[in-house]
Amino acid sequence: MYYLFRVFYALASLKILSKLWWAVYYLDFFRKPIVFKNLNIAFPEKSKKEKIKIAKTTYKNFLTFFEDTIDFKKHPQKLDEIEVKGEEYIKKALEQNRPVILVTAHFGNWEISSKFIHRRYKKPMAVIMREIENPKINKFFQNIRGGEDIKLINKKGSSREIVKSLLKEKRILGILIDQNTKASTAQKVKFFIENTPFNPAVSKLAKSLKAIVIPGFSYKKDDKYVIEFKPSREFKENDTIKEFTQWQADVIEEMIRLHPDQYYWFHNRWKSVV
Fold first, then answer.
1. Cβ neighbours of residue 119 under 8 Å, at least 6 residues apart?
2. CA atoms within 13 Å, Cβ hemisphere of 81
3. Over the chain, what is the mean pLDDT?
4. Strands (E), the chain
5. How far apart are CA 65 and CA 109, in angstroms?
6. pTM, whole model, 2 decimals?
7. Which of 1, 57, 234, 247 is 20 to 30 A (C-alpha) from 139?
8. Can you tell me whether residue 126 is helix, strand or coil?
9. Angle between the N-to-C axes of helices 87-95 and 113-121, in degrees from 0 to 180, rounded to the nearest 10
10. Predicted confidence (pLDDT) per residue in 144-186, tens digit
11. How far is CA 189 from CA 54, 67, 70, 199, in A?
12. 128 with 271: CB under 8 angstroms?
């Protein structure tokens, strides 16, 4: 697995990998059925031809994002060329001197968001990540994601580090919340379909720490990257965990519907539902 990854990395460094998307698409017998299962759930109104087009472009985009992540690591000054939308929302949140949680999804090139935010707003960050089983591959992604005052927090057993990062170290916390989660801890919300288990961690943090939650997404449009922030939200007295979680699901779904071929359809998102 590691040596295959090294081949992918070498091809990505040379900007060749994305040109081979068609080979990856046609040879991927494991993830491709999951991609189409997810597309059938999310877009029952779309034709088979439309779904195939989304799937093919998803593979191409995913490989392109991998190339670009490596390129941004080598040339961080390119982060300054990214277009920003909704910047007033994050600036207003940072001005309040309160814990700030950036909620996002496996959408577009999420890997570059923390680097961009730290560079542009001069704020330290903490990013929750799931460790990869292969230690060598995991080390590679730690190098890509960490550094430059970006702290990496292991998803398992992270509660104390999260609170410390938000309150004591005054870091912006970045978290991806769109993947399938355990039924015992999940909130059932509408995420394309009813009764989808959704991670309520951000909602609970917002309630207990009085944090400001701001959705942010990194995507590519016309061969140029855009970082788009959405209006923030705080946990109010009359809010419920489910309502606050549903708001996050709605914002993420809206972005996916606008750019369906930039979402990570490879994950078996609705395996506990369908």
1. 76, 79, 80, 148
2. 9
3. 92
4. 83-85, 100-104, 125-129, 150-154, 172-176, 187-191, 193-198, 212-221, 224-229, 233-234
5. 6
6. 0.93
7. 57
8. strand
9. 60
10. 776 768 888 887 767 888 999 999 999 999 999 998 887 677 8
11. 25, 34, 35, 10
12. no
114 secondary structure, DSSP code? H
- The CA distance from 31 to 22, in Å, is 14
DSSP for 140-194? HHHHHH-BTTEEEEESTT-HHHHHIIIIIS-PEEEEE--S---TTTPEEEEESEE
**Which 3 state secondary structure label does DSSP give 269?**
coil
Q: Could you tell me how far CA 151 lies from the centroid of its own chain?
A: 16
Structure tokens at 232: 């923030």
- The residue type of 172 is I
Tokens of 33: 């059925």
Strands 100-104 and 172-176: parallel
* Residues contacting 53, CB < 8 A, separation 6+: 261
